[in-house]
């Protein structure tokens, strides 16, 4: 057996739902995993139960103080879902149990979602969503008509989003899965919307960057006499700022895309149908949520397109700089050729002068030698001396010229 076979197979049962019968109330908290919030909540939960979770556990269903609590850890957040049975005379929307408030105490700033689901039976509910304080609610039949879900998506003074589920034919298993879908829609919708403030901030930055890129493109197209070095410096600065902006937002936009897909999938799994003239629950969410997702996606595409445009302009400028360098090299080589030619001419002149000087020096020596012989009483006929010493001198001068040429060739 493969060592990971059992673990991989059990992923099918990794995140079970809480199964229950109505009437009941579900309190759902979602906390961002920041400032050690998740670790602190789980540590307090262990103190309450006295039983640490299994190693590598990402979720657990516990009985705490007579209530059913499920915690579930995700990549960026932790969720707490508390199931509380309802009494017939209980108020419609009870406050969250003190247990939840104790677990998240000190980390309220990390609460990204607080949702309350009131589950009532079809034969015992008040008969209208307005009776539960929901104003202009959206409602849908879900689960092929076996339940009706209502919500006005307005936060209470405590920041709680309320949903009313009227069960008409769901058993405990289907009811647990249905409420899980509803809670996941709300949680992932909020997690996906985390990118919206960042996208609005980046929109202003991108406008400045696009304007700057346009100016650099105009300078590159029209200012051919301008050196490419200042343009490359400005473009490098723009590219660095774009890279910093992309590094800051890339992970957030990717997470938004993934969370949005989950929301869309969970809404499809509701299998909705309309209730009277009320807007459908999924329709209401998508009509307002899709623009957020599309806006974030468009900002992400603008970032990528702008980065590609900067890269193309950078390539053009580098090509231009390379051409300028090649032209400078060609001019330098031409100057070297001219200098070498001048040096060769000077060298030839020096060689000629050297031969003339050496010739004069030789003939002077020959003359002194002949004068010395005449002083010693040896008379030499000038014609004979010229016939003998002339070819000898010319031979010596020829050998010297030949040696100079050989040295220059080497």
Count helical runs: 8
Strand content: 5-15%
Give the low-confidence spans.
none
Q: Structural class from helices and strands?
A: alpha+beta
Q: From N to C, what is the helix and strand string?
A: HEHEEEHEEEEHHHEHH
Give the overall average pLDDT. 84
Termini gap: 79 Å
Helicity level: 55-70%
Radius of gyration from CA coordinates: 46 Å
Biggest sheet, spatial arrangement of strands: 2-3-4-1-5-8-7-6-9
- How many strand units? 9
Give the count of structural domains.
3
The geometry reads as rod-shaped
How would a textbook summarize the main sheet?
9 strands, mixed
Short key terms for the protein model shown above:
410 residues; alpha+beta; 3 domains; nine-stranded mixed β-sheet; transmembrane; membrane
Structure description:
This protein has 410 residues and is α+β, with helices and mostly antiparallel strands. The chain has 3 domains: 14-170, no CATH class; 195-331; 346-409. Helix content is 58%, strand content 15%. The chain has 8 helices and 9 strands. It has helices at residues 5-9, 37-49, 98-103, 172-193, 195-222, 228-269, 281-375, 382-409; strands at residues 24-32, 59-64, 67-73, 77-85, 111-121, 138-142, 147-151, 161-167, 273-274. The chain has a 9-stranded mixed beta sheet with strand order 2-3-4-1-5-8-7-6-9, sandwiched between helices. A hairpin with a 2-residue loop joins strand 2 and strand 3 (67-73). Helix 5 runs antiparallel to helix 6. The longest helix is centred in the last third of the chain and has 95 residues, at 281-375. The two termini are 79 Å apart. The chain crosses the membrane at residues 349-370, 376-402. Residues 199-226 form a coiled coil.
